[in-house]
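Worked example 3. Consider a protein that binds pyridoxal-5'-phosphate.
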Amino acid sequence: MAKPISFARGAPSLDIVDVDGLRAAADKAFESDPGGMTAYGTAIGYPPLREWIAERHQVAPEQVVVTNGSLQADAFLFDALVESGDSVIVERPTYDRTLLSLRNRGADVRMVELEPDGIDVSALERVLAAGARPKLAHIIPNFQNPAGYTLSAAKRERLLELARTHEFTIFEDDPYVALRFEGSPLPTMLSMDSGDTVVYASSFSKTVCPGIRVGYLVGPAELIARVVKIATQTYISPSMVSQGIVNQFCLSGALERSIEFVRNALRERADTLCEALERELPEARFVKPLGGYFLWVDLPRGTDVGALFEAAAERGVQYVKGSDFVLDGGDSSMRLAYSGVTPEEIEEGVKRLAAAYHQLAGVADEDAA
Ligand SMILES: Cc1ncc(COP(=O)(O)O)c(C=O)c1O
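Given these inputs, the predicted complex is written out as structure tokens:
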């Protein structure tokens, strides 16, 4: 059996995690604040890190809650805002765990098509004009999971206008924002909003490491207070040890160095993946990502991505089927994550994937003949 190569997991390979920097940050954290690190703490998170995040986003600390990963923040937010039967807008395709979390809460999930420059705002307008009254629109603005697409500045404006007019909250889920390969960063909708329209989430999973489990929410103080109450009732407090380490990692400048390193590695991986696909699998259609972890690939209509999944697995290659990120359809699409594989593994993985595809396509052609 060939060595497994996984394009499935949205996680970094070990070589792009700054383990030495984390050890140094842990030493510093235990040395400088042993009491704060070892106590329960409170559900707002480790106060110095909360302040650091507040400063970054130019908001008051009362507008920030730091959680065990941003997925936990999402869950608290949904607990605070979404009741069974509530309508929630999401992108199509979207992050599978968000879909699951919303569906588990009985939300009426409405998917609106995602375009290479972000959610189709005209389609959203039509959904609203037809009478939809969403509580929330979940938007992943930068290097979207799973598509890798980025929401344009103009669409950010339009979304904010729609949210104000139709009185729904925008949930800006932004864990990949720091991982831009080229061009200037776009303003967050949080920073563009003059009122209480946006709740913002981000994470240190993609810039420090996922195992540290530190993420956060920024939003109106009253809503954050409600989230803090839910958090207290759930777990008293998140991990002070993790947050203390992240705090030192940020203060020492290790964060900026790590981001630079990760960005360069990801840029090389994305380039390698796109070039390998163009060469080995010219049938694949994709939009080259400007940052982040993911590439969305459309194969010719009629491709059985399920059968390809099996054939690729036999060759030791994994990916996630497009259908996992939508409520229906997505049958000829797949998500390839390049975060956890080296350029050499990418070259080899694409060769195997292409061989699996061409073998199946050959069988299909013979069947049709
Ligand atoms: C869009 C999106 N939101 C949230 C998360 C969860 O991040 P965390 O590791 O901070 O829980 C991910 C992780 O892949 C993600 O892609």
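Take a moment to read the result before moving on. The longest helix spans residues 254-280. Residues 10, 69-71, 95, 140, 145, 173, 175, 203, 205, 210, 215 surround pyridoxal-5'-phosphate (CB under 6 Å).
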